Amino acid sequence: MDWCRFRFRSVWRLAAPPEAVYAVLERAEEYPRWWPQVREVVPRDARTGTARFRSVLPYDLVVTAEARRRDPAAGVLEVGLGGDLEGWARWTLSALPGGAGTRALYEQEVEVRDRLMRAFAVPGRLLFRANHALMMRGGRRGLAARLRTPVPPV
Predict the structure, then answer these.
(1) Alpha-carbon gap, residue 150 to 152, rounded angstroms
(2) 134 and 8 in contact (C-beta within 8 Å)?
(3) C-alpha angle with apex 81: 80 to 87, nearest 5 degrees?
C-alpha cells in the first residue's frame, strides 16, 4: 500500500435540481463564497486555475486544477490535479427519485506530493481523512445554503 495515496468518496443529497447544482459547481472561482475551506481560487485561463484549501489542520494545500470533462447533460465535472495533491476529482450529479432533488457524488483519487504531508502520511493518515471529511461537510452545508439563495446572473 502506498501510504501517500488517498481515495475519497462523498455523497450529498441536495434539495435542488441537478441543473441548478451543476450551475453552481461548474463555477469553481466562486467556491470560496460558499465553501469555507476553499480559501482561494484563481483562474489561469478557461480550463485551469489554482486553488488553496485549508480545513481543520493549520496547513494550506495548493493545487492546480485542469478541466478534463464538463458534461452538463451527464451531470459530470472532472478535473486533473497537480501541485500539493496529484490526481483527479469528479462530481457526478443525478436526480433523486420523484424529482426530490439531486444526488451529488464526489470522488477523488490523489497522491500527496507536499513534502511535509508525505512525511506524516503514515502517522497522520486517519487525521488527514478526518480533515477531508470535515471539509466535505462544510462544503455540503455551504452548497445547500447557496442553492437556497438566488444567485444573480453574471
Answers:
(1) 6
(2) no
(3) 80
